[in-house]
Design brief:
With about 100 residues, the chain is mainly β. The protein is built from no helices and 9 strands. Strands 1-2-3-4-5-6-7-8-9 form a 9-stranded antiparallel beta sheet, with no helix packed on it.
């Protein structure tokens, strides 16, 4: 499916069977070629844009917990038990916790 933009460039988008955007190409002055991959429950796990990749990780509640952009620091997000975003910060700024995790 192609769409003409105001600057006369054309953007073409493709979708999967779940109607999730799987690719987007744009020509003209702001040309790019992006591809998106999703996990089995529909979370975006990878975005490739003109050779630069962004990776996404999620917790069991399908909340975004980690994003690594093509350049720069990854971002870590922390959620409370009600699904509210509590903290979203570059990973390098999160405090390092040391100790032993005991289970059971």
């Amino acid at each position: 499916m192609g769409m003409a933009e105001l600057d006369d460039s054309v953007t073409t988008r493709s979708y999967d069977q779940s109607y999730q955007l799987t690719s987007q190409q744009r020509d003209g002055a702001n040309a790019h070629n992006a591809t998106y991959l999703f996990d089995g429950v529909g979370n975006r796990v990878l975005k490739g844009d003109s050779g630069a990749f962004t990776t996404y990780l999620y917790n069991p509640a399908n909340e975004l917990t980690w994003m690594q952009p093509p350049t720069g620091q990854p971002t870590t997000s922390l959620w409370d038990v009600n699904g509210n975003l509590r903290v979203s910060t570059p990973t390098a700024r999160l405090p390092v916790m040391r100790g032993t995790l005991k289970t059971g």
